[in-house]
C-alpha cells in the first residue's frame, strides 16, 4: 500500500516535470546554448559560412590583444573609459542614499510623494527616449541654448551632444538623472524599517535633526548601501551598451566607447566576430571572479553573501 | 520651540527645533523642488513645443507655456506609415510578450514550490543561475540566427519569455501562502493544474500585477534586440524608429518634404513640419504610454523592488 502511494507520487512528480519541460527548453536554448558560441573565439570565423576545423586558430585572438600594439592601445582606451564610467558611478554611489535620507525629512506628505513619483519616472523610459529628450533640450534651438544665450553666458549655440569634452561626466549625469530616484526607493524602504522609538528617544534627549540623521538613520541603512556597492563592484566591467550606443557619435567616440559597446562595434561594425567573442569571454571570467570576491567580502563582513 | 502631541503616550513632548533644523528644512524643500523640476520639466518642455507654433519652437521661443496652440503635429505624425506599423509592432510585442512572461513566471514560480516535482532543486537552480551569466551578444546573435529568429517577430518574444527574477518573485509569494489550501484542494481530488488555476492564481494576483508592469515596460522599452536582430523595416519598433529619426537627418528630411507638400500649400509656417517638430512629437507619442500607466502602478513597483531586495 505504501509502495503504491510512493509510486503515485513519483508519477505525479514526473508529470509535473513534463509540464515545465517546454519552459526549461526555452532556458536551455536561449541561455545555455549560446555558451557554445564561445568556441568562435578559437576559430577564424567568417560570418556567413559554417565553422570548419580548418579555421581553428587556437589562442590567436587572445594573443592578438597583447601582441598587436594597435589592438592593445584600443583595448586599453576602452578599459580606461569603462573604469572611468564605473568609477564615477561608484564614487557617487552615496548620492541615492543621501537623496532618500533627506527626502524622508520632508514632513509634507503630498510634496514628498510628488517628488518621489517625479524623480522615479525617468527610470522607466528607455535610453533611446533619454537620448531623444537630451537631443530636444540640448540642440541648437533647445531650451538650454536659448536660456544660456538670453542670459548672455554664450554668444553662439553650443552643441553639447556633439562635443568631446567632459563625456564621462555627462554620461554619469544622464545615468543619475535616470536612476537616482529609483535607487532611492531601496533606501526609503530601509528607512521605513527603522524603529520609531529610537528617533523618539533621541528627540527627547534633545538631539537635533542632523544628529538623528547622522547617528540613527545613516547607520541603519549602511548595510543596504554596502550590499549595493558590492553589487556594483561585481558589475564593474558591465556598464551595458545601450546608453553609450545611443549617445555615441563621431565627436565623443574616443571617450564614450566602453567594453560592452566595443564588443558590439567590433563585431557588427567591422565583422570581428572572433576577437569580440574572445574579449567578451575574458570579460565574463573577470566578472565572475569579481562576483565571487565581492560575495566573499560580504560574507566576511556581514556574515552572509548576496548570491 | 515647537509642541507636538505624542499620541502613543498621550503627553506633550517638547522637541528642540533650533535654527539649524529650520535651515535644513528650507534647504531640503528648495533642493527637492529642483530635483523634481529637473526630472519633470524635460517632458513638459517637449510637450508644449509639440503643441506650439512650429516656427516659434524652431527659434527656441517656447520655454514655459505653449504659444499659438495647434495639434497639426500629431495629425501629421499619425499619417507617417512607418510610424503606424512601428506602433503596431510595439503594442503587439508588449501585449504578447507580457502575457507570456507573466504566465510562465506564475507557473514556474508555483511549480518550483511543489515538493513532488521530479528533480525540483536542479531545475530551479538551472533557471536561477541564468541571472548571473550571459554568453555575450555575439554568441547570442549567432544562436538567434541559427534558430531563424532574426527578422522574425518571435525573436522579440521567446528570448524574454522566461525571466528568472520574476519567477523568484512569484515563488517567494507562493511560499508565503499557507500550504493547507493546496492540500485541502488535493484531498478533494484536484490535480496540479487545477490547484494552480483555481487556488494559486487568484491569491498571487498582486505579485502578478507587479511582474506584468515590469515586463510590459521592458518590452515597450526594448531597443537592443531590434538593433541586433532586425533589418526588415516591417519589424521595426517605435523605439528603433525614434532612434532613426533622431540620428538620420536625411530620412527625416524626405519625410518633412513629403508631409508638407501633401498638406495644403497654404500651410503656414506655424504649422509646417520641421525635423525637430517630428522628433519631439514622436518622443511624446513613445513616452505617453509609460507616463499614463506609471502613476497607477507605482505602488506595485515599490512592492516588487522590496520583495526583490529581500530575496536578491
Query: Would you tell me the structural class of the helices and strands of chain A?
Result: mainly alpha
Report on the biggest sheet of chain A: none
The CATH superfamily label of the largest domain in chain B reads MetI-like
Proper CATH architecture of the largest domain in chain B: Orthogonal Bundle
Give the overall shape of chain A, derived from the CA principal axes. Answer: globular
CATH superfamily of the largest domain in chain A: MetI-like
Give the CATH class of the largest domain in chain B: Mainly Alpha
Indicate the percent of residues in helices of chain A.
Answer: over 70%
Structural class by secondary-structure content of chain B:
mainly alpha
End-to-end Cα distance of chain B: 45 Å
Rg of chain A over CA atoms, rounded to whole Å, is 26 Å
CATH fold-type name of the largest domain in chain B: MetI-like fold
Mean pLDDT of chain A: 87
Q: Using CB atoms under 8 Å apart, which protein chain pair has the greatest interface? A: A-B, 92 and 93 residues
Description:
The complex is a heterodimer of chains A (307) and B (312). By secondary structure, chain A is mainly α. Chain A is built from 14 helices and no strands. In chain A, helix 3 runs parallel beside helix 8 (167-192) and helix 10 crosses helix 14. Chain A starts with a helix and ends in a 5-residue tail after the last helix. Chain B is 69% helix and 3% strand. In chain B, a hairpin with a 4-residue loop joins strand 1 and strand 2 (11-15). Chain B folds into 2 domains: 1-50, no CATH class; 76-242 and 280-311, MetI-like fold, CATH 1.10.3720.10. Chain B has 312 residues and is mainly alpha-helical.
Secondary structure elements and pairings:
The complex is a heterodimer of chains A (307) and B (312).
Chain A: H1 2-32, H2 60-67, H3 69-91, H4 95-105, H5 109-120, H6 127-138, H7 143-150, H8 167-192, H9 196-204, H10 209-234, H11 242-247, H12 253-256, H13 259-270, H14 273-302
Helix pairs in contact in A: 2-3, 2-14, 3-8, 4-8, 5-8, 8-10, 10-14, 13-14
Chain B: E1 2-6, E2 11-15, H1 19-50, H2 54-58, H3 72-78, H4 81-111, H5 120-129, H6 137-146, H7 154-157, H8 164-175, H9 179-187, H10 192-203, H11 205-221, H12 224-229, H13 238-247, H14 249-262, H15 275-311
Antiparallel strand pairs in B: 1-2
Amino acid at each position: 500500500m505504501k509502495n503504491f502511494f510512493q509510486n503515485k507520487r513519483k508519477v505525479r512528480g514526473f508529470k509535473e516535470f513534463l509540464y515545465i519541460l517546454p519552459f526549461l527548453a526555452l532556458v536551455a536554448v536561449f541561455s545555455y546554448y549560446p555558451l557554445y558560441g564561445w568556441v568562435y573565439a578559437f576559430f577564424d570565423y567568417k560570418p556567413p559560412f559554417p565553422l570548419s576545423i580548418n579555421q581553428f586558430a587556437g589562442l590567436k585572438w587572445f594573443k592578438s590583444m597583447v601582441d598587436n600594439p594597435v589592438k592593445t592601445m584600443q583595448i586599453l582606451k576602452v578599459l580606461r573609459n569603462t573604469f572611468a564610467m564605473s568609477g564615477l558611478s561608484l564614487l557617487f554611489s552615496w548620492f541615492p542614499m543621501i537623496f532618500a535620507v533627506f527626502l524622508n525629512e520632508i514632513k509634507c506628505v503630498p510634496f514628498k510623494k510628488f517628488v518621489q513619483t517625479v524623480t522615479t519616472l525617468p527610470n522607466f523610459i528607455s535610453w533611446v527616449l533619454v537620448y531623444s529628450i537630451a537631443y530636444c533640450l540640448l540642440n541648437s534651438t533647445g531650451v538650454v541654448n536659448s536660456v544660456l544665450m538670453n542670459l548672455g553666458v554664450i554668444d553662439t549655440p553650443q552643441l553639447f551632444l556633439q562635443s568631446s569634452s567632459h563625456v564621462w561626466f555627462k554620461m554619469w549625469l544622464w545615468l543619475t538623472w535616470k536612476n537616482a530616484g529609483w535607487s532611492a526607493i531601496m533606501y526609503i524602504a530601509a528607512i521605513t524599517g527603522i524603529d520609531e522609538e529610537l528617533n523618539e528617544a533621541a528627540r527627547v534627549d534633545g538631539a537635533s535633526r542632523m544628529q538623528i540623521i547622522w547617528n540613527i538613520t545613516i547607520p541603519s541603512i549602511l548595510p543596504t548601501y554596502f550590499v549595493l556597492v558590492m553589487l556594483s563592484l561585481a558589475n564593474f566591467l558591465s556598464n551595458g551598451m545601450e546608453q553609450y550606443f545611443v549617445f555615441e557619435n563621431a565627436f565623443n567616440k574616443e571617450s564614450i566607447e566602453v567594453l560592452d559597446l566595443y564588443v558590439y562595434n567590433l563585431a557588427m561594425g567591422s565583422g570581428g566576430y572572433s576577437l569580440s567573442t574572445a574579449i567578451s569571454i575574458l570579460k565574463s571570467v573577470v566578472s565572475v571572479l569579481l562576483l565571487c570576491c565581492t560575495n566573499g567580502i560580504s560574507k566576511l563582513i556581514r556574515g552572509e553573501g548576496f548570491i | 520651540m515647537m509642541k507636538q502631541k505624542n499620541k502613543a503616550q498621550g503627553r506633550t513632548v517638547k522637541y528642540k527645533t533650533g535654527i539649524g533644523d529650520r535651515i535644513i528644512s528650507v534647504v531640503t524643500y528648495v533642493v527637492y523642488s529642483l530635483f523634481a523640476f529637473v526630472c519633470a520639466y524635460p517632458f513638459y518642455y517637449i510637450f508644449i513645443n509639440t503643441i506650439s507654433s512650429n516656427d516659434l519652437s524652431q527659434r527656441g521661443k517656447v520655454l514655459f507655456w505653449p504659444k499659438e496652440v495647434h495639434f497639426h503635429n500629431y495629425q501629421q505624425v499619425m499619417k507617417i506609415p512607418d510610424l503606424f506599423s512601428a506602433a503596431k509592432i510595439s503594442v503587439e510585442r508588449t501585449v504578447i510578450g507580457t502575457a507570456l512572461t507573466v504566465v510562465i513566471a506564475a507557473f514556474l514560480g508555483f511549480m518550483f514550490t511543489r515538493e513532488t516535482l521530479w528533480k525540483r532543486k536542479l531545475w530551479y537552480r538551472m533557471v536561477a543561475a541564468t541571472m548571473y551569466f550571459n554568453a555575450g551578444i555575439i554568441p547570442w546573435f549567432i544562436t538567434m540566427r541559427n534558430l531563424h529568429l532574426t527578422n522574425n517577430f518571435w525573436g522579440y518574444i521567446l528570448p524574454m519569455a522566461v525571466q528568472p527574477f520574476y519567477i523568484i518573485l512569484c515563488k517567494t509569494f507562493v511560499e508565503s501562502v499557507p500550504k493547507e489550501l493546496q492540500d485541502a484542494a488535493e484531498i478533494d481530488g484536484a490535480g496540479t493544474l487545477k490547484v494552480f488555476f483555481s487556488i494559486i492564481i487568484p491569491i498571487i494576483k498582486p505579485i502578478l500585477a507587479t511582474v506584468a508592469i515590469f515586463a510590459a515596460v521592458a518590452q515597450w522599452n526594448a531597443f537592443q534586440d531590434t538593433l541586433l536582430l532586425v533589418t526588415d523595416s516591417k519589424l521595426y519598433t517605435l523605439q528603433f524608429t525614434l532612434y532613426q529619426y533622431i540620428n538620420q537627418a536625411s530620412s527625416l528630411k524626405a519625410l518633412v518634404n513629403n508631409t508638407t507638400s501633401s498638406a495644403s500649400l497654404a500651410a503656414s509656417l506655424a504649422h509646417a513640419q520641421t525635423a525637430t517638430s517630428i522628433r519631439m512629437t514622436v518622443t511624446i507619442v513613445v513616452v505617453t504610454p509609460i507616463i499614463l500607466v506609471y502613476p497607477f502602478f507605482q505602488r506595485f513597483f515599490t512592492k516588487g523592488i522590496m520583495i526583490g531586495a529581500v530575496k536578491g
